[in-house]
Amino acid sequence: MQNISAQDTLIRKLTTHSRLSTAESAAIAELPARIMNYERGSFISRQTDFARDAFVVLTGIACQQQTTRAGARQILTVYLSGDVANVDPGFAGESQDVIAITPVEVALISLDALNHIFTEFPNVGTAFRREAASELALLQSRLVSLGRCNARQRIARFACEMASRQRASGGSEPEFIEWPWTQEELGDLTGLTAVHVNRTLKSLREDGVLALSRGRLQVTDWNAIEFAAGLNRNSTDQKRPALHKCLADLSLQPTQAEYRSI
């Protein structure tokens, strides 16, 4: 795999939804970055940390999570290669719990350095806000999934999301999706028990919708998985799974035999 600098990774991400001038790209290219590596299960940041750095995921998969006092975890956001986190830690100055789902390489970038660029080049700040809006759209889609989808739809929708995002970031082969998730992690993401996740994945495999092998997921029938997910066909490309930019307005389609209650 060709090595791409942290700054180039960030520029490529920002230009997904925005245009940057030569001067703006040059300013980003000059940002100082510290490269850090984290093993699976390691905390990249904790909610109690005082945030001084944003970070760009260079390789691997990470997630943002919150844990209740009782110890129950909810995975909120999934970060893939090129995604940016912790740009706006909030008024309290706290970062979020971000944990590595796979071995992860990230680039830490000073928030002070970013704020300096935002002041000098307001369009760069706008580009970051667009990426934040895209992340919010994904979160809204997951809220719909948690509140109005059955188990089969939740798992299928997440598979479609991962497929489209990994392809957009150049991180997966055409027929396969990186799928490092344990059943417990999928449960924390979809609001299901590990037993229910196992039962749902088994059902999708038996129905010929997908196959799982050695940390990779293969969708064997895209029409079937989109139907299982309850995706609006008007929001999807006819040749590919649901596109990242469409996930915000994916609507549930009434199903009959496929609609299975939790």
What features would you describe in this structure?
With about 260 residues, the chain is α+β, with helices and mostly antiparallel strands. It has 2 domains: about 130 residues, Jelly Rolls; about 100 residues, Winged helix-like DNA-binding domain superfamily/Winged helix DNA-binding domain (Arc Repressor Mutant, subunit A). The strands form 3 sheets. The protein has a 4-stranded antiparallel beta sheet. β10 and β11 form a beta hairpin. α5 packs across α8. The C terminus is likely disordered.
Report the helical percentage: 25-40%
| Domain unit count | 2
What is the averaged pLDDT score?
Answer: 85
Enumerate how many helices there are, as a single number: 8
The level 1 CATH classification of the largest domain is Mainly Beta
Strand order in the sheet with the most strands = 1-8-3-6
- Number of DSSP strand runs: 11
The whole-angstrom Rg is 19 Å
Query: Strand-residue fraction?
Result: 15-25%
Measured distance between first and last alpha carbons: 42 Å
Q: From the 3D structure, determine the CATH topology of the largest domain.
A: Jelly Rolls
Backbone shape = globular
Which residue ranges are poorly predicted, with pLDDT under 50 across at least 5 consecutive positions? 235-262
The name of the CATH architecture of the largest domain is: Sandwich
